[in-house]
Design goal:
Strand content: 25-35%
Shape: elongated
Radius of gyration: 29 Å
Number of strands: 16
Structural class: alpha+beta
Oligomer: single chain
Helix content: 10-25%
Order of helices and strands: HEEHEEEHEEEHEEEEEEEE
Number of helices: 4
Strand order of the largest sheet: 13-12-15-16
Distance between the termini: 90 Å
Length: 262
């Protein structure tokens, strides 16, 4: 083979290698769509988004960590195809098939329940984002939901040396009584009788009994109006009292379907 033929063969080989390398990079990005990505800095100081393994293989000098963005970029909440949400820049979000919710937005959070969702057994509740809740084995009750208050348990009587039984101690703070609800077109006007020793009251509501409560209001009065409700929907309304050192059990109202339900 002449020198010119060898040069041409070398050029063709280089072209084939370049096309293969570009295809491999595209495949890598597609395959890593569900993989955590972050800011990778190359030897020439350029910053781009990729996963930690690819950053190392491509000679990156530093990886800022999973779900980080290059300096100077505006970031916001990005919902990825697998349902998880991370705060990254909009370009990176789009590259990995995510839905960018806007600059300076945050990932939604809600009540995450561990244990019995209907509160029939032992359970705990904390505020988390959906992905973290699922990763920890919890049950996510919806964006914006809040954990219901835990009622103050009734103390268990202690045995004595005398035949006279010790009476069961009463809760430190009684739950509100005489709870009534007046239905409006898109609102519920809630009122109740004050509890002795209470300094404030909390009102919550949900479309599901025993879970998914949303905060209606916190007030020092004995009335509260929950606004912006959906007509023709059944709502479960709970009222609880708050004292200096205790929170009462929750009084829940359950009714049938009407114009607005409570």
């Amino acid at each position: 083979m002449t020198r010119s033929h060898r040069a041409r063969g070398s050029s063709i080989g280089a072209l084939v290698f370049a096309v293969f390398a570009a295809g491999s990079l595209g495949a890598s990005r597609t395959a890593s769509a569900a993989t955590a990505v972050g800011a990778c800095t190359s030897k020439d100081g350029h910053c781009y988004s990729t996963d930690s393994t690819t950053c190392k293989l491509q000679g990156g000098i530093s990886y800022a960590g999973d779900w980080t963005s290059c300096p100077g970029l505006l970031t916001g909440a990005c919902k990825l195809p697998d349902g998880s949400c991370h705060v990254i820049d909009g370009k990176t979000c789009g590259q990995y098939g995510g839905s960018y919710m806007g600059d300076n937005t945050k990932c939604p959070t809600g009540a995450c329940v561990f244990g019995s969702l209907d509160r029939s057994g032992a359970y705990t509740c904390t505020i988390l984002d959906p992905a973290t809740c699922a990763a920890k084995g919890g049950q996510y009750t919806g964006d914006g939901t809040v954990c219901p208050p835990t009622p103050t348990p009734t103390p268990t009587p202690r045995p004595t040396m005398t035949p006279t039984p010790v009476p069961t101690a009463k809760p430190a703070l009684a739950a509100p009584t005489n709870v009534t609800v007046v239905k409006g077109a898109t609102s519920l006007a809630v009122s109740w009788t004050a509890s002795a020793g209470a300094t404030s009251y909390g009102v919550v509501y949900s479309k599901t009994s025993g879970s998914g409560y949303l905060a209606g209001c916190t007030t020092t009065a004995t009335t509260c109006t929950i606004m912006n409700l959906t007509p023709g929907t059944t709502y479960y309304v709970g009222v609880y009292a708050v004292g200096p050192s205790a929170t009462s059990a929750m009084t829940q109202i359950v009714t049938g379907t009407s114009k607005i339900l409570y």
